[in-house]
Amino acid sequence: MIRLSNTIKQTLSRAFCLSAATVFLSLSGNAWALFADDDARKAILDLRKTLATTQLELQNQIEKLRADNAILRGKIEGLEKQGDDVSTSQKTYYQDLDNRLGNLEPRTETIEGVSGIVQPGEKKAYDDALKVFQAGSLKKADVDFSAFAKRYPNSPYLPLALFWSGNSKYATKDYPGAITQVQGLIKRFPNHPRIPAAMVTLGNAQLESGNKAAAKKTFSEVISKYPDSEAAKDAQQLMAATK
């Protein structure tokens, strides 16, 4: 780029000299005396031709310089993009590494207000059981959630495992099992956000077992303790079945 700039300077100098000569020949009356008319015209035409050629060369050199600059900018942008790609790739790599290490090491988590240490494979076991429940395989889901509760008795996922296990038992008409499971959940985690819904499941299981008095008491408790909840609305509707 430096060599090209020097060339342009030389060309501009030549163009200036030629222009000056043209002006001189145009304005000086003495210049016409040095040449015959034909020679003067020829000299002027030659000067104009040389000047035009020089200007064309200069324009070509300027265009080449612009093209070179465009290529250089493209290379710089390409290098910058490569740098960004490398940075993104490294960030993704380290995030993936952190996730893998996290799956291999115990870590503290808070799940719906319950804090505890999550062991490697624990979250996957819970997620797998939940997927089975969502797929409608309720008996298998109950087995998986019950197994989870036994394997991880101190897990922050335990209240959820007991909740879904109780619902699985109720859905498969294991009403005594549902009552026992939900009562255990309520006793151990009385302030858990799933308790209102769990109590509705408990009341339904009591109702299906023929114990209307117990069901009425459970539904009334839901309405009085959680009056603004969706569970209270459900309990209010179910109260009619306890009469």
Descriptive report:
With 243 residues, the protein is mainly alpha-helical. It has two domains: 2-101; 109-242, Alpha Horseshoe (Serine Threonine Protein Phosphatase 5, Tetratricopeptide repeat), CATH 1.25.40. The chain has ten helices and two strands. It has helices spanning 2-27, 29-34, 37-104, 122-134, 138-151, 158-171, 175-188, 195-208, 212-225, 230-238, and strands spanning 107-111, 114-118. Strand 1 (107-111) and strand 2 form a beta hairpin. Helix 5 (138-151) packs antiparallel against helix 6, helix 6 packs antiparallel against helix 7 (175-188) and helix 7 (175-188) runs antiparallel to helix 8 (195-208). The relative contact order is 0.05. Mean pLDDT is 82; it is low at 31-35.
Give a concise summary:
The chain is mainly α.
Outline the secondary-structure elements.
Elements: H1 2-27, H2 29-34, H3 37-104, E1 107-111, E2 114-118, H4 122-134, H5 138-151, H6 158-171, H7 175-188, H8 195-208, H9 212-225, H10 230-238
Antiparallel strand pairs: 1-2
